[in-house]
Amino acid sequence: MIEIIEGLPENVAAFKATGNISEIDYDNVVNPKVERVYKNFGKINYLLVLDTPLKNYSTGAWIKDVILGFVYFTEWRKIAIVSHGKGVKDFTNFFGKLIPGKTRGFLSDEVEAAKEWISQ
């Protein structure tokens, strides 16, 4: 399940992923919030707190995630990914250099730092 993280500035699309993730999570939660942020601000600050293993993402969820990335490819202002694994943090920091905007990975104990960074 993906839930919206409340309490951040309006220009931030912030989410927490727990348990099993499906394409329905993108259709009902992620995509509508990202679209609202884009329509209201023109650029998107995106925070994803991964509190579930990546293996819990269905194939449909991965496809929706990739499509989301391409649809707004030039509209990402900042992307922060928080996870338990250093590998996800390192992947985010490395491959983030290949897309527009700023990208940064954080470990789970850095979630407050991620919220602060994405809110700036």
Supply the key terms.
120 residues, globular, 5 strands, single chain
Chain-wise SSE layout:
Blueprint: E1 2-4, E2 12-18, H1 23-41, E3 44-51, H2 59-71, E4 76-83, H3 86-95, E5 102-107, H4 111-119
Helix pairs in contact: 1-2
How far apart lie the N and C ends?
A: 27 Å
Q: Please give the number of β-strands.
A: 5
Mean pLDDT: 96
Structural class: alpha/beta
The domain tally reads 1
- Describe the biggest sheet? 5 strands, mixed
Rg to the nearest angstrom? 13 Å
Range of helix content: 40-55%
Q: What is the element string, with H for helices and E for strands?
A: EEHEHEHEH
Uncertain residue ranges: none
Describe this structure in words.
It is a single chain. The protein is of the alpha/beta class. The chain has one domain. The protein is built from four helices and five strands; from the N terminus they run ββαβαβαβα. The protein has a five-stranded mixed sheet with strand order 1-2-3-4-5, with helices on both faces. Strand 4, helix 3 and strand 5 form a beta-alpha-beta unit. It starts with a strand and ends with a helix. The mean pLDDT is 96.
Task: Kindly summarize this structure in a few lines.
The protein is of the alpha/beta class and 120 residues long.
